[in-house]
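We emphasize that the prediction below concerns an isolated chain of 133 residues; any contacts that depend on oligomerization or on bound cofactors are therefore not represented. The input was used exactly as deposited, without trimming of termini.
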Amino acid sequence: MAIIVLLLLGGCAPGSEEPEAAKAPGVPANWTDEGFLRADRPRKFSFPQDHGPHQGYRTEWWYVTGNLEGPDKRRFGYQITLFRIALTPEQPDLNASHWRASHVWMAHLALTDIGAKKHYHQERFSREALGLA
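Result of the prediction step, given as a C-alpha coordinate string:
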Protein backbone atom coordinates (compact mmCIF):
# COMPACT_ATOMS: atom_id res chain seq x y z
CA MET A 1 0.00 0.00 0.00
CA ALA A 2 2.81 2.43 0.87
CA ILE A 3 4.39 1.86 -2.56
CA ILE A 4 1.12 2.72 -4.32
CA VAL A 5 0.78 5.94 -2.30
CA LEU A 6 4.38 6.93 -3.13
CA LEU A 7 3.81 6.26 -6.84
CA LEU A 8 0.63 8.33 -6.83
CA LEU A 9 2.29 11.21 -4.98
CA GLY A 10 5.27 11.12 -7.34
CA GLY A 11 2.95 11.67 -10.30
CA CYS A 12 1.49 14.75 -8.60
CA ALA A 13 4.81 16.49 -7.99
CA PRO A 14 4.66 20.27 -8.42
CA GLY A 15 6.49 21.67 -11.40
CA SER A 16 5.94 18.64 -13.62
CA GLU A 17 5.72 19.89 -17.18
CA GLU A 18 3.03 19.06 -19.67
CA PRO A 19 4.31 16.61 -22.31
CA GLU A 20 5.31 18.32 -25.56
CA ALA A 21 2.79 16.20 -27.49
CA ALA A 22 -0.07 17.62 -25.36
CA LYS A 23 0.53 21.21 -26.53
CA ALA A 24 -1.64 22.62 -29.29
CA PRO A 25 -0.32 22.06 -32.82
CA GLY A 26 1.08 25.17 -34.48
CA VAL A 27 1.80 26.97 -31.20
CA PRO A 28 5.47 27.97 -30.99
CA ALA A 29 7.38 26.18 -28.22
CA ASN A 30 8.57 29.52 -26.79
CA TRP A 31 5.05 31.01 -26.63
CA THR A 32 4.44 32.04 -23.02
CA ASP A 33 1.96 34.14 -21.09
CA GLU A 34 4.78 36.21 -19.59
CA GLY A 35 3.95 39.91 -19.62
CA PHE A 36 0.22 39.42 -20.19
CA LEU A 37 -2.44 40.44 -17.69
CA ARG A 38 -4.35 37.62 -16.00
CA ALA A 39 -8.04 37.48 -15.10
CA ASP A 40 -7.37 36.08 -11.63
CA ARG A 41 -9.73 38.14 -9.46
CA PRO A 42 -13.18 39.75 -9.67
CA ARG A 43 -13.37 43.14 -11.32
CA LYS A 44 -16.01 45.77 -11.92
CA PHE A 45 -17.31 45.79 -15.47
CA SER A 46 -18.35 48.91 -17.32
CA PHE A 47 -20.56 48.56 -20.37
CA PRO A 48 -20.52 49.14 -23.28
CA GLN A 49 -16.69 49.40 -23.07
CA ASP A 50 -16.29 45.90 -21.65
CA HIS A 51 -18.12 44.33 -24.60
CA GLY A 52 -14.94 44.82 -26.66
CA PRO A 53 -11.29 43.74 -26.46
CA HIS A 54 -9.19 44.29 -23.36
CA GLN A 55 -5.60 45.15 -24.27
CA GLY A 56 -2.92 43.37 -22.30
CA TYR A 57 -4.70 39.99 -22.09
CA ARG A 58 -3.54 37.03 -24.21
CA THR A 59 -6.92 35.59 -25.18
CA GLU A 60 -10.55 36.72 -25.12
CA TRP A 61 -13.66 35.28 -26.69
CA TRP A 62 -17.27 36.25 -27.29
CA TYR A 63 -20.20 33.86 -27.77
CA VAL A 64 -23.61 34.38 -29.30
CA THR A 65 -25.89 31.36 -29.15
CA GLY A 66 -29.54 30.88 -29.84
CA ASN A 67 -32.40 28.92 -31.29
CA LEU A 68 -34.34 29.66 -34.45
CA GLU A 69 -37.60 28.43 -35.89
CA GLY A 70 -38.30 28.57 -39.62
CA PRO A 71 -41.67 29.41 -41.20
CA ASP A 72 -42.19 25.65 -41.63
CA LYS A 73 -41.61 25.16 -37.86
CA ARG A 74 -38.19 23.55 -38.45
CA ARG A 75 -35.90 24.18 -35.50
CA PHE A 76 -32.26 25.23 -35.59
CA GLY A 77 -29.57 26.03 -33.06
CA TYR A 78 -26.67 28.36 -33.78
CA GLN A 79 -23.42 29.48 -32.21
CA ILE A 80 -21.13 32.31 -33.29
CA THR A 81 -17.81 32.59 -31.47
CA LEU A 82 -15.05 35.17 -31.90
CA PHE A 83 -11.58 34.64 -30.40
CA ARG A 84 -8.93 37.35 -30.09
CA ILE A 85 -5.38 36.13 -29.50
CA ALA A 86 -2.69 38.72 -28.74
CA LEU A 87 0.73 38.05 -30.24
CA THR A 88 2.64 40.22 -27.76
CA PRO A 89 1.72 41.82 -24.42
CA GLU A 90 2.68 45.28 -25.69
CA GLN A 91 0.84 47.16 -28.39
CA PRO A 92 3.34 47.33 -31.27
CA ASP A 93 3.93 50.48 -33.29
CA LEU A 94 1.34 49.85 -35.98
CA ASN A 95 2.61 52.83 -37.95
CA ALA A 96 5.84 50.92 -38.63
CA SER A 97 4.09 48.75 -41.24
CA HIS A 98 0.53 48.25 -42.44
CA TRP A 99 1.32 44.51 -42.51
CA ARG A 100 2.24 44.35 -38.82
CA ALA A 101 -0.36 42.55 -36.71
CA SER A 102 -0.79 42.63 -32.96
CA HIS A 103 -3.64 40.09 -32.80
CA VAL A 104 -4.95 37.03 -34.58
CA TRP A 105 -8.70 36.49 -34.75
CA MET A 106 -10.63 33.27 -35.16
CA ALA A 107 -14.34 33.15 -35.96
CA HIS A 108 -16.42 30.00 -35.63
CA LEU A 109 -19.99 29.57 -36.86
CA ALA A 110 -22.08 26.48 -36.21
CA LEU A 111 -25.65 25.67 -37.24
CA THR A 112 -27.59 22.59 -36.17
CA ASP A 113 -30.64 21.47 -38.15
CA ILE A 114 -32.37 19.67 -35.30
CA GLY A 115 -35.00 17.82 -37.35
CA ALA A 116 -32.52 16.60 -39.97
CA LYS A 117 -29.95 15.79 -37.26
CA LYS A 118 -27.26 17.66 -39.21
CA HIS A 119 -24.56 19.94 -37.89
CA TYR A 120 -22.73 22.47 -40.07
CA HIS A 121 -19.72 24.48 -39.00
CA GLN A 122 -17.03 26.73 -40.39
CA GLU A 123 -14.11 28.62 -38.90
CA ARG A 124 -11.72 31.24 -40.19
CA PHE A 125 -8.47 32.71 -38.93
CA SER A 126 -7.21 36.17 -39.81
CA ARG A 127 -4.64 38.58 -38.51
CA GLU A 128 -5.53 42.07 -37.40
CA ALA A 129 -3.67 43.93 -40.11
CA LEU A 130 -4.71 45.66 -43.32
CA GLY A 131 -8.33 45.46 -42.18
CA LEU A 132 -8.35 41.67 -42.66
CA ALA A 133 -10.05 40.77 -39.38
